[in-house]
Amino acid sequence: MAGHRFPVPRFEGVSQEQFIEHLYPQRKPLVLEGIDLGACTSKWTVDYLSQIGGRKEVKIHVAAVAQMDFISKNFVYRTLPFDKLVQRAAEEKHTEFFISEDEKYYLRSLGEDPRKDVADIRKQFPLLEGDIKFPKFFKEEQFFSSVFRISSPGLQLWTHYDVMDNFLIQVTGKKRVVLFSPRDAQYLYLSGSKSEVLNIDNPDLAKYPLFSKARRYECSLKAGDVLFIPALWFHNVISEEFGVGVNVFWKHLPSECYDKTDTYGNKDLTAASRAVQILDRALKTLAELPEEYRDFYARRMVLHIQDKAYSKNFE
Ligand SMILES: O=C(O)CCC(=O)C(=O)O
């Protein structure tokens, strides 16, 4: 595939000061190695998680294929006790299954009432809390959520962005993450916060010709690695092995900028949603014009937006 590829830089033994003063302000993805994450990286085996994590019911994504697609919804939601989910996600073939014996599982843990509560594994899995330390690279009051990410081997999660800053902690297993800059959104064929291009390694360029222009940042995560994913950076995740991850979202901006009904960390900022609604109204108004005039004023509006709202500071 054509297009630019960049490795995500890796940093070993970074201090709180180095991260906050030098790395964080660049707002680019990076992998932190050697962060003290507690005992989870050695303790969280399938047996241990099944015993200590308990039998709490969790809602999971189940698919017959490895490449999960949120737009066409090629998966179903099911519930399983946490211990069963861990056991099934760790096996390649299942004797008990919902769709097929080689179905894939994905857990993105939720709050007690997902419509109202954000996920915090310390609350939903209190017996595991003592095993994991989150990187202390943001203030406690900025914390938003902590989420279990447990996936079957081979599972690929669709490309999407979130609106909060994020540490993706790889606790066990290997994962490949491909990221795209928010500045390349125009090449990603977006439907809401998700990209329509599922097969990022072998994309259908007849259908998605602009995708080859997207700059691709790539890293492999192993147990103990922490990937910093700045808000709005698109990410696509492939679990190369059964793996357990935890991601921590935190608020980079003042709390009032975020949508108060957002429990996932992926609803657009309130000012962005308002701007989009106003644009939709402007488009309805433009539709009152004959085609030749609509086209002319639409082009002028695009130029006006570029002039007034695009940042001059990004490469
Ligand atoms: O690691 C995963 O399974 C997905 C991670 C992710 O999408 C996130 O941290 O926002």
TrEMBL record:
Signal peptide: none annotated. It comes from the Eukaryota. Pfam families: Cupin_8. PROSITE patterns: JMJC (PS51184). Residues 123-267 form the JmjC domain. This is JmjC domain-containing protein.
